Amino acid sequence: MTDMIMTDPVKRAVVWISEELRETPKKSLTVLLDEAAARFNLGPQDWSFLRRFFEQNDIQEQKSS
């Protein structure tokens, strides 16, 4: 797997999704990813990157708990 450079729209999506998850933790990540893709004009690769990013961060948080 190659590293992906976070473009400005992807960075904004990370911030937005993070805020949404803090406000509504039970909200589906898939729904948030779809909303972020529409809001920030993200492509399929961006969507996949964001899914991996949030899933890996969730796993890291669970391990440290």
Spell out the blueprint of helices and strands.
Elements: H1 8-23, H2 29-39, H3 44-64
Helix pairs in contact: 1-2, 2-3
Describe the global form. Answer: globular
The class by helix and strand makeup works out as mainly alpha
The termini sit apart by: 28 Å
- The number of helices is 3
What fraction of the residues are assigned to beta strands by DSSP?
under 5%
Percent of residues in helices comes to over 70%
Largest sheet: none
Low-pLDDT segments, ≥5 res: none
Radius of gyration (CA) equals 12 Å
Strand tally is 0
Average pLDDT works out at 89
The helix/strand series, from N terminus to C terminus, equals HHH
Brief descriptors of the model:
0% strand, 65 residues, mainly alpha
Task: Give a verbal description of the structure.
There is one protein chain. With 65 residues, the chain is mostly helical. The chain has a domain at 29-65. The chain has helices spanning 8-23, 29-39, 44-64. Helix 1 (8-23) crosses helix 2 (29-39) and helix 2 (29-39) crosses helix 3. The longest helix is centred in the C-terminal third of the chain and has 21 residues, at 44-64. The chain is globular. 12% of the residues are buried. The model has no long low-confidence stretch (mean pLDDT 89).
Put the structure in a nutshell.
This protein has 65 residues and is an all-alpha fold.
